[in-house]
Structure formats: structure tokens, C-alpha cells
Design a protein that fits this description.
Length: 400
């Protein structure tokens, strides 16, 4: 069942700020020491006081969070004036409704004559938090004023007035159709047809459904090219991979290990195996697993000599699943669960009690194969279930 925190994050990403804010406050009543919840609350804050309170709580929980400290310092420098005591609820007390934002246009307010308007104070929109875009507050102005301000190159207003499908003229309907339907469809099609890494955009794209949230990773070793589909937020942990180095440094700051002697560089590939690591901070902070998380690591290595003919493989009845390939060759999968090994606890994240290991082998020929070993917290198995099946089904091995 999806957690309240996960729902709030999805709503914030979709631009539904008020509903996300309400769920975040609901979650914080019972979990006031969840760093990621306060971060997301800052991203949808209703006013300056709430924004400052949320970042202050992040630093209370994790004084080493450099992102929160930088944002709070920037905020206080920008708004260096006395601020009234924030009317923000503490955990255990329901959050009060946010006061309505003033108009984005001076002197014009909904339901108030222009001559009675109080002095203009601009609506507050906090800067982005967690690298996510934020949606500005809607201007509460009279309809006729919005219509005038929003006229575009076609000489008519965008959706929001009366007429064709809520538009002022047919050109507006055409623009709305392109923005709402055509462009998203093209973007989704491009993602599905181009399963390559999107760089920093891999993080939000990883939450897209099915193949849209996956990319193709290619590895070369010992005269073979290995390709497979994996979540977009999985990266090859290699010192020559610039994107990995970027995310490695981000994680050392945002999601450090409880043992300060351990860093994310520890997972980098060695001479005898490739290592692929989940780097999405939201997943690592436990958004899809009620705050429980630990590193998710995939290790790829050459399988020792064996017999991968289907007749031999099918004789072993201990395998979780058997996969048939061309040339009457078969691979197999085994799943096991054990106590979580020490040394992988993340700071300010609930440590899992068990680790699940998914091991599967794909044959190169009848005597050799590639071994895949996925180590992840048992709490995240359901989150990755479809991704694991897609990974196994997509493996291709080509001799160079």
C-alpha cells in the first residue's frame, strides 16, 4: 500500500501543492524526524514562515545537510527583516489552513473593490528544493484582468474563459490541445523509442511507468558486449563515468552512511565485476518503502564454467525460475533472504532488518555464462518487482 509520504511526493511533483502540503503535515504528525518529509514541505511551503520552519527542521534532524543550510542562508539574506513568529503547527497538532495569497497584480483582489485593496505584498514562492521544479502560486485576480494579461500571439486567451472547450476562440483550443495532449504524447514516444540515459532528467523519468522509466545499459568485457534494461536511476559505478561521479558526490552529502568512514565510492566496479547502483535520493530515503531503505546494488561478473544446456539445468529443482534461450540453452534464477549485513546503514533513514538477494545466470554458450547478483532491502522487493523481470528478459550478450 502506497505510503502517505509517497502520495505527497507524487502530488508535489504533479504541481498539486496544497494537497501535497496537507498530506505532508499529516505524515509529520506521527513522523516528525523524517528529513525528506520536511524537505518536500519546504518545496510546497505556503509562506515564508513555513518555508523557514521546514528547512530549520531539516537541519535539526541532519545538521550536515548542506542543501538545506544553503537554502536557509540564502532565504535569510534575501529576507533580512523581522519576521512575525510563524503560525506553524508543531508535530502532533493539525496544520492551520494557509492564508490566501495576495494578487500578482497590484491593487486588484478577488471580491474586493480596487479602491479598498490593502498595500501590495507579492505572493511568496520558495526556491526549488530537492532539485524539483516548483509551480508558482495562482494569481487570484478578476477573470477579465487575467484574460487581458494572458493574450498571446494568436490574439486570444488560453483556456480559462468561455467558449470552445473553455477557450475564447478556436486558436486557443488548438494551442491547448497541443500543450495538453500532443506534446506529452511526443515526449512519451521519444522516451520509449530512445531508452538512453537522460542525464539529470533520469531521476524524475525513473518514476514513469513501465519501459518509459527504464534505460538500456551496455557493458563491454572479455570480448563480449552485454546490454540490459534497468531503471533510469541505476548507474554504472565507475570512476570513468561522469554521471556516476556527479551522483556519488551528491549522495555523500544528501544520503550519507551512518558510518562516516564509508562513502558511496566504496561501490565502484573492480577488475572482476561491474557494479550498478541505485542513486535516486527519494528511493534511498525510503519514499516507496515507508522510510525504510539501504543501498540497492547489482553486481555483474563472469560465471564459472558450468553446463547450461536446458536438459542439465532443468534437473536442478532448487531454482526459483528457469529461462530458455536460443540454441537449447537455459539460465536460472534463485532468490534468498537473510539478515541485513552490517555497515550499510544510511544516516537518518530507518535501516531494514533483512536483505533479499536475487541471483540469476544468463548463458553465453553451453559452458559459460554471466552471473547477475542483485542485493536490495527486502522492503524494496515489491518496488522493483517489474524492473527485475524486465531486466532478466532484456539481457543480450554479443561476441565482439
Amino acid at each position: 500500500m502506497t505510503s502517505i509520504l509517497h502520495q505527497a511526493v507524487e502530488l508535489a511533483q504533479a504541481g498539486q501543492r496544497e494537497e501535497a502540503r496537507r498530506l505532508l503535515w499529516q505524515y509529520l504528525q506521527t513522523s516528525p524526524d523524517t528529513e525528506v518529509a520536511w524537505l518536500w514541505l519546504a518545496s510546497v511551503a505556503a509562506d515564508q514562515a513555513e518555508y523557514e520552519r521546514a528547512l530549520t527542521e531539516v537541519l535539526r534532524i541532519n545538521p550536515a545537510n548542506q542543501q538545506a543550510r544553503a537554502l536557509l542562508d540564502q532565504f535569510r539574506q534575501q529576507y533580512a527583516r523581522p519576521v512575525a513568529p510563524p503560525s506553524i503547527p508543531t508535530p502532533g497538532v493539525a496544520a492551520p489552513p494557509a492564508p490566501p495569497h495576495p494578487s500578482a497584480y497590484e491593487g486588484v483582489y478577488v471580491g474586493m473593490p480596487a479602491q479598498e485593496a490593502p498595500p501590495y505584498t507579492p505572493a511568496y514562492t520558495p526556491p526549488p528544493v530537492m532539485g524539483r521544479p516548483m509551480t508558482p502560486s495562482e494569481a487570484q485576480v478578476r477573470v477579465e484582468y487575467v484574460e487581458k494579461k494572458r493574450r498571446g500571439p494568436f490574439g486570444c486567451g488560453l483556456p480559462g474563459c468561455f467558449g470552445c472547450m473553455g477557450c475564447g476562440c478556436w486558436q486557443s483550443c488548438l494551442v491547448a490541445l497541443i500543450l495538453i495532449i500532443v506534446l506529452p504524447a511526443i515526449a512519451c514516444g521519444a522516451l520509449s523509442l530512445s531508452p538512453v540515459s537522460l542525464g539529470p532528467l533520469d531521476m524524475p523519468a525513473a518514476w514513469l511507468p513501465d519501459d518509459l522509466g527504464r534505460k538500456t545499459i551496455r557493458l563491454e568485457a572479455n570480448g563480449y558486449e552485454i546490454s540490459f534494461d534497468a531503471p533510469r536511476s541505476w548507474y554504472l559505478a565507475d570512476a570513468n563515468n561522469e554521471m556516476w561521479k556527479l551522483w556519488r558526490d551528491v549522495l555523500d552529502q544528501a544520503v550519507p552512511f551512518a558510518d562516516e568512514a564509508t562513502s558511496w565510492k566504496t561501490f565502484e566496479s573492480t577488475s572482476d565485476q561491474f557494479v550498478i547502483v541505485e542513486v535516486d535520493p527519494l528511493v534511498l530515503l525510503g519514499a516507496p518503502s515507508d522510510g525504510v531503505s539501504a543501498p540497492t546494488v547489482l553486481r555483474v561478473s563472469r560465471q564459472p564454467q558450468g553446463d547450461f544446456t536446458c536438459g542439465t539445468v532443468r534437473q536442478n529443482r532448487t531454482y526459483t525460475a528457469i529461462y530458455e534461450y536460443e540454441g537449447s540453452l537455459c539460465g536460472y534464477r534463485t532468490d534468498s533472504t537473510a539478515t541485513m549485513p552490517p555497515g550499510l546503514e544510511l544516516k537518518n533513514v530507518i535501516a531494514p532488518t533483512q536483505q533479499t538477494t536475487v541471483t540469476f545466470v544468463t548463458p553465453i554458450d553451453d559452458k559459460s555464462g554471466i552471473q547477475w547478483r542483485l542485493e536490495l532491502p527486502t522492503d524494496l522487493v515489491n518496488h522493483y518487482k517489474d524492473d527485475i523481470d524486465a531486466l532478466i528478459a532484456s539481457v543480450k550478450i554479443k561476441r565482439l
